[in-house]
Write a structure and sequence with these properties.
With 121 residues, the chain is α+β, with helices and mostly antiparallel strands. It has a domain of 76 residues: DnaA, N-terminal domain (GMP Synthetase, Chain A, domain 3, 2-Layer Sandwich), CATH 3.30.300. 44% of the residues lie in helices and 16% in strands. It is built from six helices and three strands. The chain has a three-stranded mixed beta sheet. A hairpin with a 2-residue loop joins strand 1 and strand 2. Helix 2 packs across helix 5. The chain is globular, with a radius of gyration of 16 Å. The N terminus and C terminus are likely disordered.
Length: 121
């Protein structure tokens, strides 16, 4: 379904149809999230680490990020760093958030499974 616009573009995320945030809504506020991170000690370093991160999924108030670099995905998942990212999400969107980062690309599993299902003769 097409999204309806009220004419004025708000800088905040728009919840999905069921009222929950989705990955696209988080991506829409990514610039504000990066700005909010700067208030935390080490926030600029986190901002730099997050430049190659992707919002993979959102379930309730739990956000899963992916990062192509395994060392950086581990650093982003560090309890202190995840707490800072969650704090920035709270500043931008309200609510209490949980954040984790996993190594890899954003999910494209269905296509990968189809390719594996048809091996060459």
């Amino acid at each position: 379904p097409a999204a309806q616009s009220s004419g004025a573009s708000a800088p905040e995320a728009t919840p999905a149809a069921d009222g929950a945030m989705d990955a696209a809504a988080i991506r829409n506020v990514w610039p504000q999230l990066m700005t909010a991170l700067r208030k935390f000690t080490g926030g600029r370093s986190l901002e730099a680490m997050l430049t190659q991160a992707t919002v993979a999924s959102v379930e309730g108030h739990a956000v899963t990020l992916t990062h192509k670099s395994e060392p950086l995905s581990r650093r982003l998942s560090d309890q202190d760093n995840a707490r800072k990212i969650a704090g920035a999400l709270s500043d931008v969107l309200g609510g209490d958030w949980q954040v984790r980062c996993v190594h890899g690309n954003a999910p494209a599993a269905p296509a990968a499974r189809v390719q594996q299902a048809a091996p060459a003769p």
